[in-house]
Amino acid sequence: MAAVLDSVRAYFAQNAFTIDLENAGDVVARENLLDRAMGPGRRRKSSETLRRNRVPAEGLALVARDEDGHVIGTVRLWNVHAGISQEGNAVDALLLGPLAVDAAHEGKGIGGALMRAVITEAKKRGHGAILLVGDAAYYERFGFFAHNAQHLVMPGPFERSRFLGLELKAGWLGGAAGMLVATGRKLMQAPMKRAA
Fold first, then answer.
1. Is CATH 2.60.200.40 the right assignment for the domain spanning 2-182?
2. What are the sequence ranges of the domains in the chain?
3. Phi and psi of 174, rounded to 5°?
4. What's the DSSP call for residue 62?
5. In angstroms, rounded to a whole number, what is the distance separating the alpha carbons of residues 137 and 123?
6. d(CA 146, CA 136)
7. pLDDT tens, 108-119?
């Protein structure tokens, strides 16, 4: 990951942003950015039910930072089972989302840089496929297509034409059918103290 991030940092430093691994100190800034970018209904989306109370896939939560270190973009990938293979085995995959860029920094290539970096890192880590619900006109340039997810469904309402997949390994989603199921590590919650 360090080599990928170093090359991305060098290239985008001239454009006044860098791509970095998300850290615990980014939580509030990331959540505020997502609230502004996605609006109040963002927590009711089908994708959110797969992310709720889960931890992003290892090493696959990235942020874009401005020259002062502030979070101006975010993308995360989450572990899921993408239905069942023809042999009856669960198909491991990743679910992307959300991808968001602060409105004040749109048009600088930040979203594209985040996408390229997270796809490269997922491939390097040996993952087979990434799924998402999003605008096909935007995501097709990164290799996401509806036909890769045609036999899969989300656990709730979704627009079929916006459910897209990218195979990082050829044929990974071939024959996969069924509903996406969250498989990532669960978020550890601090034990609550009981009143005396």
1. no
2. 2-182
3. -60, 120
4. E
5. 23
6. 8
7. 999 999 999 999
d(CA 55, CA 52): 9
Please list the residues that pair with 130 across neighbouring strands.
94, 166
Round to whole Å and give the CA distance between 126 and 39: 34
**Continuous H helices in the chain:** 2-13, 27-38, 46-51, 110-124, 136-139
Contacts of 77 (CB under 8 A, 6+ apart): 56, 57, 60, 61, 94, 95, 96, 118, 122, 127, 130
Report the candidate in 176, 184, 183 with the shortest Cα–Cα distance to residue 83: 176
How many angstroms separate the CA atoms of 137 and 141, rounded?
8
67 CB neighbour count, 10 Å cutoff = 11
Give yes or no for a contact between 120 and 6, defined as CB atoms under 8 angstroms apart. no
Tokens of 115: 């996408």
Q: How many residues are present in the chain?
A: 196
Tell me the pLDDT tens digit for each residue of 125-180.
999 999 999 999 999 999 999 999 999 999 988 999 999 999 999 999 999 999 99
